[in-house]
Amino acid sequence: MPTPVKVQPETISTPTPQGHEITPRDRRFGRDADHARDKYWLNGDPIGTAFYDALSLTFPRGEAYFIESVKEFRDCAPPKLQREIRAFVKQEVIHSREHLALNRRLEERGFDISRIEERITESLNMTQGRPKIANLASTMTLEHYTAILAKELLANPRHMAGAEQETADLWRWHALEEIEHKGVAYDTWLYATKDWTRWQRWKVKALILYAVTVNFWRNRFTDTLDLLAQDGIKGWRVKLKFLSFLLARPGMGRKMIIPCVKFLLPGFHPWNEDDRHLIDLADSEYEAALLDRDATDSLKAA
């Protein structure tokens, strides 16, 4: 069993690798007017395409929520964690920009995304007025979710097998940066709760994980079926095929079960599992896009 994570009052000591750098990569995808925009860009599969399209719709506003939740604790954090939070913010800002562009292409293909956006708004409205620490807890849990998705997407090429190249590149780029900053929200949580007992932390984590899991999969199921229905793809057979997509092949939902259980074990930390080799594997394609440390004013102000 992992040794319980220790957090000191003025510094933060966690399994985050020493010398690990978070490097924003300023990539742009699908801006070419001649770029292929296949309706079912994921190997001609409407279900897989709809799943990732529905997930993409959550990112612009969802990542804005993550940014604000973490920034609330930045100024009182240790210097190293402050730097990591700033890099995290820059990465998330660029992710939001690229998913906005991807989502516009979804609308250009004739999809009505208003109902999905309304559900996203309703979910975010529920966070209004909550204690800052509650929003941080939700963020570090959802960041764990995205890190699991990211690892699985990069480790198993079958998830993007046969996908339209530019869209697959976007998802792989997003995934490598999610792995790269996977410990930031959790380290911020550890520092913000440094005076809590382990039992207090565990109770909040368990409650938030339950709520996040229920809401995440309920909304992904509803949103994916919404997009499919707009194409006339509906009925109980479609629901069974979608469940098979999640739980059998390629099985992204099934692959998330054990990592979610580990989230509740004593001593959990995202970097207990060092998967930087996946970053190195994917990063070779993006060296030309490394964001200069003197990034644009809009990113500096984030």
Automatic annotation (TrEMBL):
It comes from the Bacteria. Signal peptide: none annotated. Keywords: Hydrolase. Pfam families: Metal_hydrol (PF10118). GO terms for molecular function: hydrolase activity. The keyword Hydrolase applies. The keyword Transcription regulation does not apply. Residues 1-26 are annotated as: Disordered. This is Metal-dependent hydrolase.
